[in-house]
Automatic annotation (TrEMBL), chain A:
This is Acidic amino acid decarboxylase GADL1. Belongs to the group II decarboxylase family. Residues 1-24 are annotated as: Disordered. GO terms for biological process: carboxylic acid metabolic process. Coiled coil: none annotated. Gene3D superfamilies: 3.90.1150.170, Type I PLP-dependent aspartate aminotransferase-like (Major domain). The modification N6-(pyridoxal phosphate)lysine is found at residue 322. Homodimer. One of its GO terms (cellular component) is cytoplasm. InterPro entries: PyrdxlP-dep_de-COase, PyrdxlP-dep_Trfase, PyrdxlP-dep_Trfase_major, Pyridoxal-P_BS. Its cofactor is pyridoxal 5'-phosphate. One of its GO terms (molecular function) is carboxy-lyase activity.
Automatic annotation (TrEMBL), chain B:
One of its GO terms (molecular function) is sulfinoalanine decarboxylase activity. This is Cysteine sulfinic acid decarboxylase. Its cofactor is pyridoxal 5'-phosphate. It comes from Poecilia reticulata (Guppy). It holds the Pfam family Pyridoxal_deC. SUPFAM superfamilies: PLP-dependent transferases. The modification N6-(pyridoxal phosphate)lysine is found at residue 284. GO terms for cellular component: cytoplasm. Belongs to the group II decarboxylase family. One of its GO terms (biological process) is carboxylic acid metabolic process.
Amino acid sequence: MASSTETHIKGKMQHFSSHNDPLDRPPLDFAATESFLQQSMTMILEDAVKKATDVRQKVCEWHSPEELKELLDLELRDSGEPEARILERCRDAIRYSVKTTHPHFFNQLYAGLEPYSLVASFITDALKPSLYTYEMSPVFTLMENAVLRKLIQIVGWEEGGDGLFNAGGSMSNMYAMNLARYRNFPEIKELGNSAAPRLAVFTSQECHYSISKAAALMGIGTKNVFVVPSDKKGKMIPSALEEQIESLKSEGGVPFMVNATAGTTVLGAFDPIDEIADVCEKYKLWLHVDACWGGAVLMSNKHKLLMKGIHRVDSVAWNPHKMLMACLQCSAFLVRDKTRLLQRCHSARASYLFQQDKFYDVSYDTGDKSVQCSRKPDAFKFWLMWKALGTSELEQRVDRALAMARYLADEITKREGFRLLMEPEYANVCFWYIPPSLRDLPDGPVLQEKLHNVAPVVKERMMKKGSMMVGYQPHRGQANFFRMVVISPQVSRQDMDFVLDEIHSLGKDL
Amino acid sequence: MEPTAGDLTDPLINHADGQLFLHEAFKIIVEEVLCKGTDVKEKVCEWREPEELARLLDLELREKGEPQENLLQRVRDVAKYSIKTSHPRFFNQQFAGVDYHSLAGRFLSEALNTNLFTYEVAPVFVLMEAEVLRGLRALVGWTEGDGLFCPGGSTSNMYAMNLARYRLYPEVKSQGLWSLPQLTVFTSPESHYSVKKGAAFMGFGMDNVILVKGAVPFLVSCTSGTTVQGAFDPLDRIANVCDKHKLWLHVDAAWGGSVLFSKKHSHLMKGVHRANSVAWNPHKMLVAGLQCSVLLLKDTTDLLKKCHCANATYLFQQDKFYDVNLDIGDKTVQCSRKVDCLKLWLMWKAVGSAGLEQRVDKAFLHARYVVDQMKKRDGFQLLRDVSSHLNQPEFVNVCFWFIPPSLRGKEKNPDYQNRLAKVAPVIKERMMKQGTMMVGYQPLGDRVNFFRITILSPLVSHKDMDFFLDEIERLGNDL
């Protein structure tokens, strides 16, 4: 254990006596703060893990911002506070936070608790490594490689590939755009966009907004992101894509990339990758698949057909922190390239980090592949849980989530007052709740307008009650509808029934 | 086989198992990473070659899972072969040490798994982030402003460039750079490489970071605390130039920003209140733990949001039942965003600004002590550049060569520089293989490999400084 008790510092860590030479004072030692850490962990395990996943507890404890500010006493002051007070503050932070691991949290494209991933997060936080060089992060460098290799194998690139883990799927999508741009016009790296003609990206109308943000950030311009219409199921129409490409070329524009989405944000739709790949091959365009949400189907023998053709694409973004439940952030970017494109595109070769005269093989220093400097070892969160569960368990979870979505869709169809937007292809179940007072109205603008006001009120009520959280949104001119997202293996049929019962209970008087 | 409805009746997982694993794994983390990892009697690192380490870790991902005992052993192995960045003899990067309050904040952030895009999902942390940013802006000298936490200082620097560009040419968001004049960024040769990476990424081109004839300057990125030498650009004078030419002044204070907590040393950033934006990484000198990086802005016109927003209707509905200005997610280029403010907030609450000030001041004292000791010993030669007339480093980076006895007095030899360049890499290899400490080295311009020690951890004492000097001598005397 750590140094002797004579050097034990009581209480606060900032208590340095000022009359001695400060350098003679004992430094902090672990014994002094071990009790604080133990207590905080006990509380975390009890309140943030155990209770948070307990269906008998609330999903959220709603307070208005003004109330909450007062409750939290956020102000940062000159003097410190005793540890007991700090522990109380931790307790408050837990209490007033939304329990995203609760069985009735369905609000976003992630949910549930994965304890093996959480342990990996804790280890990472305790070690606080930075993933730019092998000397700094030997273990995590190798782990990231191993996970990427496995994901690449699953995607089906036999010749292998490259990649890294990013601070989010938005960043992965940006990387794809950057690599596509660089491959076509490598001089842009030094000279800027002006060294190239006006470039254009094609994406579906259902795509994630990060494509647009990427174009803005990278100086391409959101106007040069061309939106291809989707069909009724939310899938990109390949013939429309081809038409738009032809049209742009005839005006002198230069298409360089197509972004297809595997699992769109709202509808959970899968663009037809094989057909889109045909178009991209014909016009020699980089094909990126944003599979941040839908990539998990590749773990399932039953459902991977949704991403048929994935082995033909140039890059894939896949977020294990979504359906597979690794802790935030866990976002993989994969590229089908063996020419060190990532490295060449991003490198700045800083000599204070990437010395070439190190005593080990410096190709293990992956930091220059990234646009970031310090980078967290997010792949580890996925590696440890994969080791714990095995591929077959991950597959089972995906299959179950989709079966659960199927069940929910069936129930919605059977129940009066619920109307499905479309048959779910994945884990998004979109539907309207039509309160009794509106059920006799014919389909039309009057019903749409009244219906539009239902979901926001039901949402407000569910949050103030704390019974569950389900998202709603308008979409393509339609009235607000709910989007149920089914992910976690902790939910079961009763929870699906509960959601429908609760929505009815909260909204029947509207 | 089609799963029947019956298969969906019960939860698939057992919470009790998971909770037990968490409990057991935490014990290992405490023992191996926090206790041993901060103990000078233990090694800083356990070096293995990549192939050997890959074998030891058994990295392969398989069909079947493993029992908990195996997994707990894996936790132990990860701890064993990872670098102990909190060890008192870890001086390799611009972060070190550990603060247990911020650590508790980090564990808590992970357990809650909150996504910081809307108030509905992250009520506590939306408010907390705002308060922390307010506190940091106050130290810069701004009573109002904007900002957010980014996944690293490189991103903060990129945001500053993006905002400056957008302010000058708002049409760039939709139209891109194609029809704009060539834009250039000014920065110093000592600036962090993220300025160049950012410029490439954002379509300016790396070559346009420095002056180009006929181009339109739009941003000056200066550095408070350069990476290698810890130098502070003269902000007041640079601000004069920026005011005159109406350029956006960004201060990359990722490393040096923390001096603002110190009454004694904040003068190093005199004039910072005149900047438009400041990047500051509390995960460096304040020991908040990776990641903890902020971008602070003087702007009060909602520029951040206007520049980045995409108004996604599935997330930022305008008909919510609370004030939707609290849905800050559209200010960022990210979608999912982690909670990085809790670790700083909790630590700040625990030790107060006064405690953080003491931490900063102590780091300076350590640096001075090391320099004083080096002057008393043969063989340690400081890089002179950042020293004031008192030959003290400006900050807490101490850059020096170790001249082994065999090279002393031989400066005039034609192969002196070549031989000197080989010294640091060998000493580094030896220290890592023995696991006694970690210090970085690098070349800079025409100066051959020298060591850079950065001293900031609250866990070090002067004994560790003495050890450091003794160890360099021990490892390098025979060269």
